[in-house]
From TrEMBL:
Gene Ontology BP, a term: cytochrome complex assembly
Keywords assigned: ATP-binding, Cytochrome c-type biogenesis, Membrane, Nucleotide-binding, Translocase, Transport
SUPFAM superfamilies from the UniProt entry: P-loop containing nucleoside triphosphate hydrolases
Listed name of the protein: Heme exporter protein A
């Protein structure tokens, strides 16, 4: 679904890595590991199209990269893009419209992420873990095959890490793929790829 060949990334004066290769298959999860500053976020941003690599190629099977980035990828970074002044319900509706999710998709997201009690709260009043669950809602509401996740579990407690593991496994079982930058093990079976070695 995703192939990276000979990728080199430079930030400022620093070469993060050169000649990096990665293949991500349907049904596969890859845990991207490496020390602080190794370049995990930078790699994910390059895959999502936010950073231009110095060299190398990024391919999404036979899908044009612009099309893939617009319609086939879910990107969930440190900054979740949620608007603090909106109520969770409004944010969810906005995201559903933006991503083309239908009512059934939104209802499924509210259900599996237990968002119902939070819907009338302003996003800025959610706890970090509650907010992360809301950020995950779009991944459930509007299915897309490739998930690029940057430290997705940092604010989540053990119960919600496990629950997100079930959501991720369901995504993989449907033929999706996950590339997640992590410092802790993923709650699904995953191949580890270390950056900066
Ligand atoms: N906008 C920027 N301009 C210049 N350098 C940057 C920029 N953003 C990040 N960097 C540098 O790129 C390097 C890699 O950062 P990156 O965030 O990709 O690392 P990471 O592996 O995700 O780290 P962490 O585990 O701490 O999240 C760091 O040395 C960082 O200082």
């Amino acid at each position: 679904m995703l192939t990276v060949s000979g990728l080199s990334l430079i930030r400022g004066e620093r070469v993060l890595f050169r000649d990096f290769d990665l293949a991500l298959a349907s049904g596969e999860a890859v845990a991207l590991t490496g020390a602080n500053g190794a370049g995990k976020t930078s790699l994910l941003r390059a895959l999502a199209g936010f950073l231009r690599p110095e060299a190398g190629a990024i391919a999404f099977a036979d899908v044009d990269p612009t099309e893939a980035r617009a319609k086939h990828i879910h990107w969930l970074g440190h900054l979740d893009g949620l608007k603090g002044a909106r109520r969770a319900r409004e944010e969810l509706a906005f995201q559903a419209e933006w991503l083309g999710a239908d009512a059934a998709g939104v209802a499924a997201a509210v259900d599996v992420l237990a968002l119902e009690p939070l819907l009338d709260l302003e996003v800025r009043k959610l706890s970090a873990g509650q907010r992360r669950r809301l950020a995950f809602a779009r991944l459930v509401a509007a299915p897309r095959p490739i998930w690029l996740l940057d430290e997705p579990f940092a604010p989540l407690d053990a119960r919600w890490r496990a629950a997100l593991g079930l959501i991720m496994q369901a995504h993989l079982d449907k033929g999706g793929a996950i590339l997640a930058a992590v410092h802790d093990p993923l709650p699904v079976p995953a191949r580890a790829v270390e950056i900066g070695r």
